[in-house]
Write a structure and sequence with these properties.
heterodimer, A: 24% strand, globular, B: ABC transporter involved in vitamin B12 uptake, BtuC, two-stranded antiparallel ribbon, 6 strands
């Protein structure tokens, strides 16, 4: 029994069957990659997991509870954090404030009227945020305005914001999309380090095969809205079905 | 001190000092001198600055922090005034119950209007608040005449019940007071031809304004204030960080509505009548202009904006053609008439033109408002006339700073 169980999930947009009968099981403390060509339904699937989309059929169980019909912030409070394709951070705020917000969210829930408290007095939360920042190597940037950083640093910050909530499941949506090679490698190193140091389950959607094969324990290949194969990276590499999905039908020359 | 850090405490003490000495600071010119008409130290103007300062500070909690631009905040100002006047009519001329009721009632209205309006954001939110405010205005003007006395406005009358005061009342209309001290009583001090007026009304407003300002500082520095800035910055990320932006924005809306109600209650406490005009959309626009002129999202900006606008409104509108002629009588006749004609466009009735030009210049050259101007002057004084480029800009809110480093360092 995995921490995330997706059973028979289907989603139709008008005439397009984006997802048809997806079954997926993500096990605790593994890195599970979902790959597939453009339009395979990867992002649709992810959006169904975090409450952005409601699937037409099927069920999504997380940690024994259904996530369907819940709002994104409720699903986050259950223990799922998501990193977006383009880094979603609080650009107007400083790096440290960016870190404090998830700390407050974790401790106080979706809403609390803490209008007469002082941030400076929350020593536990500040220590926690600083520890996380130093773990990802950004402590010296704590007073920087988040929007002024490079894309790689924004990604790093976003991952740190998710990790400081100690999620049970971390969802990464193309974490290296549009990044320079150096930033991509930095991000891979960061994720490897996270995987080694923490008990965390990661689901990752990615185009970049280099990223997938350096991180994943299991890989699911999605094509035209249905899972094609699920296996270990080594077995996926030479799989004929995967080649077919990515390159089109093999032709006899 | 007061739960603030050292910098904020100093800041608050300076604000308190400036506020308490306003009657002296705003009266820099000797009586009878040519510049005496620029003196702003009379109670009516100072009270207005304090009251509209409160209004703008409250508005800024919503607009400056969450970025939601309400175009209907005057509705809460009007509702506050009506509530306070009803309290004066029914219970007592002591202003405290009236002001409390003003805050409660406008808070309730803000909760209802905010709940509906906050379903949308951006321009749609602004239009919704504008629509609600115009509805309030129209209802006060016509449908709700029994409650609001329509276009005449709600006034005191001799036969009002005034349950607590009836026994001690004379045959003339009573005046608003605080525990027996009338709001309109004042003490005049004549020092070297400078006349300083210290009035109960102004000091009452000033004390409340300081309290309101203190609450705003605490709010700005609290986790709640940080969440409101997060709403402005990225609601998407907020949702996926396990936070619900809706109650945060609604709370900010209600708080700023209560500030507006407090300001409305104070207006009624200074002059116990309430008219529907107070809710008109131009009044809503005025507080937007005050906040942007002073500097949205800053603590002191809205107060500064309120001060500048109320000063322009009261002082520039007093300068008529005969005053201008007395200024320029030394010019040759033809030129004098020309100069007076030009200046007359910007003074008297034309003071709005002065306001418009000021606003245009500030928004164009100081997007952070007058506060940004003051900051620049301070930096200039501190650092000398150093050449600056965009990378040195200290204001990330209005000029997102491009990074100096290259990607990946």
């Amino acid at each position: 029994m995995g921490i995330l169980e997706v059973k028979g999930v289907g989603k139709r947009f008008g005439g397009l069957q984006a997802l048809g009968n997806v079954n997926l099981s993500i096990h605790e403390n593994t890195v599970h990659a979902i790959i597939g060509p453009n339009g395979a339904g990867k992002s649709t699937l992810l959006n169904c997991l975090v409450g952005k989309l409601m699937p037409d059929t099927g069920s999504v169980m997380f940690d024994g509870q259904s996530v369907l019909g819940r709002k994104p912030h409720e699903i986050n409070q259950m223990g799922i954090s998501r990193v977006f394709q383009t880094p979603e951070i609080f650009g107007d705020l400083t790096v440290m404030e960016n870190m404090m917000i998830p700390c407050f969210a974790k401790r106080d829930g979706a809403f609390r009227m803490h209008a007469f408290e002082s941030i400076a007095q929350e020593r536990d939360l500040i220590a926690k945020a600083e520890k996380m920042l130093s773990d990802v190597g950004m402590l010296e940037k704590r007073e920087m305005v988040a929007s002024s950083m490079s894309r790689g640093d924004k990604r790093r910050l976003e991952i740190a914001m998710c990790l400081v909530q100690e999620p049970k499941l971390l969802l990464l949506d193309e974490p290296t999309a549009g990044m320079a090679r150096a930033d991509t490698n930095n991000t891979i190193e960061l994720l490897k380090q996270i995987k080694a140091e923490r008990d965390i389950t990661i689901a990752i959607i990615e185009h970049d095969m280099h990223v997938v094969f350096s991180l994943a324990d299991r890989i699911t290949v999605l094509a035209q809205g249905t899972p094609l194969v699920e296996d270990t990276p080594d077995n996926i590499k030479g799989h004929p079905k995967v080649k077919e999905a990515y390159l089109g039908e093999t032709q006899q020359v | 001190m007061f739960g603030l850090n050292k910098k904020d405490t100093t800041f608050l003490l300076i604000v308190i000092g400036l506020t308490l000495f306003t009657p002296i600071l705003m009266q820099p010119f000797a009586e009878g001198s040519g510049l005496a008409q620029f003196n702003g130290g009379y109670p009516d103007l100072m009270q207005k600055v304090a009251i509209f300062g409160i209004f703008a500070v409250g508005f800024n909690i919503l607009f400056g922090l969450t970025g939601y631009l309400s175009f209907g905040h005057a509705a809460f100002l009007g509702i506050g005034s009506y509530s306070a006047v009803w309290m004066f009519k029914l219970l007592t001329m002591n202003v405290i119950p009236g002001i409390l009721l003003a805050m409660v009632v406008s808070g309730l209205f803000a909760a209802a209007i905010g709940y509906v309006s906050l379903r949308r954001s951006g321009i749609y939110f602004s239009i919704l608040t504008l629509a609600f405010a115009q509805m309030c205005y129209k209802m006060a003007y016509s449908v709700l005449t029994p409650l609001t006395n329509g276009e005449t406005g709600l006034q005191l009358a001799l036969d009002d019940p005034r349950i607590l005061d009836k026994a001690i009342e004379g045959s003339s209309l009573p005046v608003t007071n605080i525990f027996g001290l009338p709001m309109n009583s004042s003490y005049k001090l004549d020092v070297m031809n400078h006349v300083f007026t210290f009035s109960v009304g102004f000091y009452f407003c000033a004390v409340i304004a300081i309290l309101a300002f203190y609450v705003a500082i605490r709010l700005f520095r609290s986790p709640f204030g940080m969440m409101l800035r997060a709403v402005k910055s990225n609601q998407h990320r907020m949702n996926y960080t396990g936070l619900d932006p809706k109650p945060y924005t609604l709370a900010a809306f209600v708080i700023s509505g209560m500030y507006a109600g407090l300001a409305g209650g104070l207006l009624a406490a200074m002059d116990p009548l309430a008219g529907a005009d107070r809710m008109l959309w131009t009044a809503s626009g005025e507080v937007v202009i005050m906040t942007i002129l002073g500097g949205a999202g800053t603590l002191m900006g809205p107060v500064l904006g309120a001060g500048v606008i109320k000063y322009l409104e009261n002082i520039f509108s007093k300068i008529n053609e005969s005053v201008l002629h007395s200024w320029f009588h030394w010019l040759p006749d033809g030129i004098e008439d020309l100069v007076v004609w030009v200046f007359a466009r910007f003074t008297g009735e034309g003071w709005h033109l002065t306001l418009g030009v000021t606003f245009m210049l500030v928004v164009t050259f100081l997007p952070g408002g007058l506060i940004e101007g003051l900051k620049r002057i301070r930096d200039r004084v501190k650092n000398g006339k150093k050449k600056r480029d965009k990378y040195d800009d200290p204001d990330p809110d209005h000029h997102p700073a491009p990074t100096k480093r290259v990607a990946g360092e």
